[in-house]
Amino acid sequence: MLVSASGCGGSTPIDATALLRQTKSIVDGTKTLHFLLTSSNAQGTGPLISGGEGDAERPAGFAGVLDVSVAGLALSIHVVSFGGTFYVKLPTAGRFSVADPSRYGFGDPAKLLDPDQGLSSLLTVCASPSLGNADRYNGEELDEVSCSLPGTRVAALLTSADPSKPVAATFGVDPLNDQLRRVVLVGPFFSRSVSSTFTLILDSYGENVTVTAPPAA
Fold first, then answer.
1. Digit-coded pLDDT (tens) for 157-173
2. With CB atoms counted within 10 Å of each terminal CB, which end of the chain scores lower, N or C?
3. Peptide bond before 188: cis, by omega within 30 degrees of 0?
4. Spans of all domains in the chain
5. Beta-bridge mates of residue 51
6. CATH 2.50.20.20 applies to domain 12-203
7. Based on the number of CB atoms within 10 Å of its own CB, is 84 exposed (0-12), middle (13-18) or buried (19 or more)?
8. Quick one: three-class SS letters along the chain?
9. Residues 103 and 113 sit within 8 Å (Cβ to Cβ)
10. pLDDT at residue 70 is higher than 50
11. According to the model, what pLDDT value does residue 12 have?
């Protein structure tokens, strides 16, 4: 746990870089976690992901439901990624089939917990991290760190219409256990000329979740 300095409204961590480093170790140390993804101003052409919810299991497992738009049609699709293979079940399908996640506008969600390519890796490529004012989520006080992320790193994990542009990020960390609780990303995710926002909520660290491959066509 990081040493904190007391001030008006509570305690704040002394160093943003140290906080991100400690938070990465907590994410990398958990076997499972749950996530909720929402977005705003999700507009653009081509396939895109606008939200979803699911569970990730280390080393490379994921199961959940994602909200996507393909050819202008909004769909909620069931997805499983296990053992390097991505499976999808469309609303009109009776079973899962093997697919390419890029067809639906995102990267392989099984990489979420990968320490080198996943969510925690973004914590180590923050440019000029700075501590912000404490915020709250569901009654929890969060220490916040703001920084700029390389667009290519975010595109590989999520999506981007212009990976050459940086992404503004705010990481919310629970000071009681250094768990990453909230990630807010602002960038050209769906359109080169329009900024959109992704908000990722993380909880249920280490809960008993098992991801297995579905019967696929």
1. 888 889 999 999 999 99
2. N
3. no
4. 12-203
5. 67
6. yes
7. exposed
8. CCCEEEECCEEEECCHHHHHHHHHHHHHHCCEEEEEEEEECCCCCCCEEEEEEEEEECCCEEEEEEEEEECCEEEEEEEEEECCEEEEECCCCCCEEECCHHHHCCCCHHHHHCCCCCHHHHCCCCEEEEECCCEEECCEEEEEEEEEECHHHHHHHCCCCCCCCCEEEEEEEECCCCEEEEEEEEEEEEECCEEEEEEEEEECCCCCCCCCCCCEC
9. no
10. yes
11. 57
**Residue 7 CB contacts under 8 Å (≥ 6 apart), including other chains:** none
For the record, the structure tokens of 108 come out as 């392989």
Instruction: For residue 215, give the amino acid letter.
Output: P
